[in-house]
Amino acid sequence: METTTDTEQRILDAATRVFIRRGTAGARMQEIAAEAEVTQALVHYYFRTKEALAERVFLTVARRTVGSILPLLSQPLPLEQLIEQFVVGYIDAVRQAPFLPGYMLAEAQQHPERLELLFNAVVGVVPSAAAQAALQHIEQQIAERSAAGTMRAMPARQLFANVAALCVFPFVARPVLQLAFGLDDAGFAAFLDERRRELPTFILNALRP
Asked: What domains are there in the chain, each with its CATH number?
């Protein structure tokens, strides 16, 4: 017999699929109910409004994709290890649901207030505080290494933006890459395995003076 928790989770899973397909604006509670194989009244009973359900889905999805990655940025790791763990951690987390980054980016653009909720829910601090702490640690390492002549100088925020973009791109551009490279799903999985090996070295080589 299905419990209340099972029904709520089934609705959340269905809503996630619908929101990823259509975005929050294009999704309808009736479609979510049909996807979950429950009545629309039951969806409203658990989540009241589409906005409340969308917020819950966004936070759930965000925790899956960044909950294991963001804490890395606050650890006092050497830059090489930090970059490698971020790349591998991101690819491994997102490959389980490769269409989620596009959904998250679209939702963040339409509802930027959810970013504040995300950071508070995942790391317990406001985004600016988390970002500044991470950037300060990276900035210090860049300054020390550039002074020693082993790394070219670069603003930490530019380095982070470059690394994040290189990690995200294969997922948001998956249909284009599969078409261009002639990859089926298994081929794309192999491409991701290759990328998680090659990308950290590529980034570190780009930082050499």
From this structure: 4-48 (1.10.10.60), 61-206 (1.10.357)
